[in-house]
Amino acid sequence: MNPLLQNNPYERPFPVKARRRNFEASKTAHPLLYALAVFVFTLASVSLFYVIVLLQKLMNEHTTPTQPQWIAIFVFLFLVSAFILIARYLCSLPVREQLQYYKASGSTWLSEDKRQALRLHVVDMFYSGYWSETLEYYPLAALQGSGKYYSLRPSDAATYKKSLDQDWGVLTKENYRKVAQQLLTKGYHAEIFAVTLNLRNEDQAVSKRLAALTHLPEAYILDCLQSRPGGRPPKLIWGYECWRAVVVARNAFMAGHITADEAWHDMLLAADYAFELFDSFEDFNNNYRLGNAFWSNSYDVTSEKIKYYNLFKEECKWPMAQLPWPAPKGVKLPPAMANGYFNEVTIAKSLRQQPGGLN
Question: What percent of the residues of the chain are helix, what percent strand, and what percent coil, each to the nearest 5?
């Protein structure tokens, strides 16, 4: 198997390759080598002028080069070759730094089940140019080892601690466990979605708005409330809840709140639930966008998600995007997933029918 290489962070081409634009960036990383490359290029440019004049003269006079002239030609070719070799080395800085980072962190290509779990996050990763083939989606300072980096620029755990605190109130491992447990058992918005669409969708106003926000058929949205053949439970918006479980686990690992093994445990569980509930990656992503729209109720937010997914479908050639969607494993789903909040919806309906009940 080829060594692990991903896209350069904030870029989409996969895998990272040597590029001309990296030449100037190498000025900081290898100043002496950069200066040598510029010096050799200058000599080669001057020599090129001499070689052109020489060749024109030889052609006009129909003569062969003398020994000094052959030496001049070979010197020119040597300078050109030397510049190409040095420039290629400098332009491949991001490639070398990725390999250096993976060696320090011990990262290799993941097993398929772990890649399948990370695939649930790939649409956003592709749009932003983040990593999809490692647990961390951006290089971490804690894993970089003792080497210096000029292209990758690993980030500190504080960045992810701040994000988790702002979004979820997570500052400790215990905080994370509470959030993960909620996402993987009851969800944060799945019950509200079930009750709202079953009881408060008069004239289908809610489902029509969700359809307009997501560009999904209204029939798909209403179908997410229904149990399916073979005893499969309603989808509700469990795609959104499972997606958030993956994202929070990755961030908690990057923040240093949990270990890699703990993160993988929760992410693999979320993936198993997703494979049990959804028929394809498109089905999962549609449901994720539906949940995002129900949570945000915002045109701006949902339009961003549509843009992300359309770009992914049109341009993503990452290996992650080529994975087949796994068949259901027959895992036991939590009661809330397994019954689609049937009892809660039934109680809410009965209360609504009573005088002075829910409205």
Answer: 65, 0, 30
- Nearest CA to 73 out of 97, 89, 57 is that of 57
Q: Within 10 A of 323 (CB to CB), how many other CB atoms are there?
A: 15
CA dist 250 → 100, 164, 169, 187, 280 (Å): 22, 11, 16, 18, 23
| pLDDT one-digit tens code per residue, 202-237 | 889 999 999 999 999 999 999 999 998 888 899 999
Q: Which amino acid is at 58?
A: L
First to last CA, the chain: 61
Q: What is the pLDDT of residue 359?
A: 43
Dihedral through CA 346, CA 351, CA 355, CA 359, nearest 10? Answer: -100
Tell how many helices (H) and how many strands (E) occur in the chain.
17, 0
Secondary structure (DSSP) of 226-247: S-BGGGBPP-TTHHHHHHHHHH
What's the farthest any 2 CA atoms get from each other in the chain? Answer: 111
**3-state DSSP call for residue 140?**
strand
| Partner residues linked to 232 by β-bridges | 228
The fraction of the chain above a pLDDT of 90, given in percent, is 66
Q: How many whole angstroms from its chain centre is CA 73?
A: 50
Q: pLDDT, tens digit, for every residue of 302-339?
A: 999 999 999 999 999 999 999 999 999 899 999 999 99
